[in-house]
Amino acid sequence: MEKKSSNKNLHKANQAKKDEFYTQLVDIENELKHYKEQFRDKVVYCNCDDPFESNFFKYFAANFNFLKLKKLIATSFVPSPIAGRQLSFLETAGLKDKEKKEPFKIEISEVKDMNSDGAVGIDDVKLLLEQNAKTCTPLKDNGDFRSNECIELLKQADIVVTNPPFSLFREYVAQLVEYKKKFLILGNMNAITYKEIFKLIKANKLWAGYGFNMSMVYASPYSNELDDNRKFVVGKGYDPNKYIKVPAINWYTNLDTEKRHEMIDLYKKYTAKEYPRYDNYDAIEVSKVSDIPMDYNGAMGVPITFLNKYNPVQFEVIWIADRQDSQGLRTKTYTINDTPNYNDLNRGPVIKIEGELRVVYMRILIKNKKVKV
Questions:
Q1: Which residues touch 142 (CB under 8 Å, ≥6 apart)?
Q2: Domain boundaries, the chain
Q3: Which residue from 111, 161, 287, 310 lies 20 to 30 Å from 348 (Cα-Cα)?
């Protein structure tokens, strides 16, 4: 019940197709610190970020020289309902008119010490935007990442970094893949189970970043309705009337990471008693990633959190054990003749405990490539 309630804000946003969640700077900094060298001489595009409100834009603009970027592009879709919370100086500089309903584009190719204080930072970006009218311009289209204008900007980019709309995650990733772009984006944990996304995971075209299964604080126009949510936000030092907690958030990327090459240290040995075989899949149940047996060479069902530890040299990802056939490993489909709750059993792998069939939460089916006998 706790897990179900904590996702209430996210579910509401998905149902309403509203995706106004603004990532905090500290969360961006914590992830981006691992990729510094991969941004050298690259064009970075933040295509789901109101440049006037986005901390993604703020991070890359302030660290333009530190990261040795070639160019930074940011575009907005519609005016932000939380105007003025992030980069309010843009309003005072006359670059943003609250009354106008037009999306903008910001392109930066160079950041100098504009205020001559001996350092380069966000204050210099402010002066750059104030003094160079060509840096910040209205978009001709509506600013949607699927618009022709934004696609043309996407073609220029080397790496896309943003928090895309939760409700459009599949379509958003599909576009990145179509145009063969490197990316580092935020998404919900459940995105792992999307068929379109999991195909990319299996093909080693998408994997987990460093931040995984996080509860994050977002600036958002949506209200907090849960006491635990509000307490979490307050505990992080934010106003619960302006910020909300969203659980189970992952970074997804196709940029290389050191952790992707780390081996899981396996120490347990397989026994039939400790690792029951599924009643409806040709695989065994492994309830914890840390309990993967080192000496078993068949298919195993592991929690979806396995993705956070997945090393493609050590393991092969087969598919997901859910309502799909799971690459032929599914051996049984239940009917009313088996049990009254047959439909529930068909939604995932099933184990038999004291004669009773019980479905377990969705599992990733894997094989160990480095079996130790």
A1: 77, 78, 103
A2: 2-258, 262-368
A3: 310
